[in-house]
Amino acid sequence: MNTTEQFRALGTILYKEIHRFMRIWMQTLIPPAIMIMLYFVIFGTLIGKRIGQMGGFDYVQFMIPGLIMMSVISNSYSNVVSSFFGQKFSRSIEELLITPLPHYLILLGWVLGGVARGLVVGAIVTFVSLWFYDLTVDNWPLCIFVVISTSVLFSLGGFLNALFAESFDDISIIPTFIMQPLIYLGGVFYSIQLLPSFWQTISLANPILYMINAFRFSILGSSDLEALGFSIYSALGMIVFFIVLFSSICLWLLNKGRGIRT
Amino acid sequence: MKALSISNLKKEYQGGVQALKGINLQVDEGDFFALLGPNGAGKSTTIGVISSLVTKTSGQVKILDIDIDENHSLAKKKLGVVGQEVNFNQFEKVGDIIRNQAGYYGLGFRKSKENAKYYMKKLDIWDKRNEQARKLSGGMKRRVMVAKALVNNPELLILDEPTAGVDIELRRSLWDFLTEINNNGTSIILTTHYLEEAERLCRNIAIIDSGEIVENTSMQELLTRLEEETFIFDLVKPINELPDVNEFEVVLENPRRIKVTLAKDQGLNTVFKKLSEFGIEISSMRNETGRLEELFLELVEPTLKEKEQ
Predict the structure, then answer these.
(1) Nearest-CA distance A112 → chain B (Å)
(2) What is the pLDDT of residues B110-122, one digit of tens each?
(3) What is the pTM of this model?
(4) Which residues of B touch A92 (CB under 8 A)?
(5) For position B307, what pLDDT does the model report?
(6) What CATH architecture applies to the domain B2-223?
(7) Architecture of domain B226-291 in this structure
(8) Residue A211: CB partners within 8 Å, gap ≥ 6?
């Protein structure tokens, strides 16, 4: 396939993916907006007023970057894992495998689909948060880089999960038992500086903590990372490292035919 | 040029099951080729390897003289495949399914739309283009699969049991359509359990059994190997008793129809002469279908018996 044909093929996958989650917007776009609104009402407005300040900011203001990131992460992941596994399950993945499409385009198409959903949901959550707090962004380029790269990383994670999944149970195990705890313990709702030093050290092993704090830094201009002696660049470097690692693994598995060929 | 060339193709599944034991197969460009075999013989595995759905253990596959390992992309551009089972997202609209398939081949939006429209009209599914595929009947879904496989105008079309479970009307309209595209130059490889279908459509044939090609010849040549042939005669006047003949075998199917089985070296003139001696007038005659079936069973019988045991 020449470059033009590759772009057209990639465009087709991306169109199909966006069309898929837009077609079922009641399942894909509305629930995160409602959930986030409840978080703001309960934790931000009702409980938040009693909490007062967190990390030097109003509690609602502190929570907003974490909640946006939480939505981006979970939606990017779930979009790719459910869509790709669905294609495997219905055997419609064969539509792609019999074509001249190179594997990297298949991967890229799904990842871009996951990023598209992550960003749409992230935008909805941001819009909802504006009802509760007058949000300003401290560093736009950093903010855009962190949100897109994190979305790419979790889309790749979803793809990896889908390649190994053999049943619908397999696509819910990792989000439920690994991702959710890591997100909730990654500093969405609290500053890890509040934790005893032992738990602080344990928390530092959670990669999602760095992503949420890098995003918080880009919006608020401050986060737990510097307070704990980490540079923002270490967080960015880690995201890029995992993107390269996950992409390589996904491509290797696709070339081997893991989960898609017999 | 060969539409398909397979050399020493082997496939061993995990657990040591040898699905293909080094098959060799050549299909000429423009041919209408039948690949037959009992269940589990290796037909679908062969098609799977050609279409990249199955990873081969060893061997070489060339599509229109292009090695699928050396120039995967170019080889696949020339191929269209209709799988055995429905393999599209049934929640999508028919038109989207077919247009998207064209897009995966790198066709532009306008060309994709144009090709999709052409094949949807040809296969009588144009009126269904805005319907969700899951709402279609089984036969209609088959048509969608054929349109999808053709939307990139492939030079080689492989159909894995395309008429399984569809009604006679659709089967016949699909036969006419396949004959038309074959006449227009598309090489076709067909696997089917309806041997009548293969006998009617295909010029050349290969029979695969237990992962090996046990026969590969022209349909004509294969059929001439029949030791005997059966004809159906419709009679002008009904008869109640069979004439007493020794030269050939006669069976009274009903008062107006007899079935005559002749040895290969016997002429039909003997039959006509003998029947007229008994005052039996014939209004029409035809071959009994299923000649290929007899040969097929003869070729794969040892394996079938083995499986039964």
Answers:
(1) 16
(2) 999 999 999 999 8
(3) 0.83
(4) 87-89
(5) 59
(6) 3-Layer(aba) Sandwich (3.40)
(7) 2-Layer Sandwich (3.30)
(8) A69, A73, A146, A150, A153, A186, A235, A239
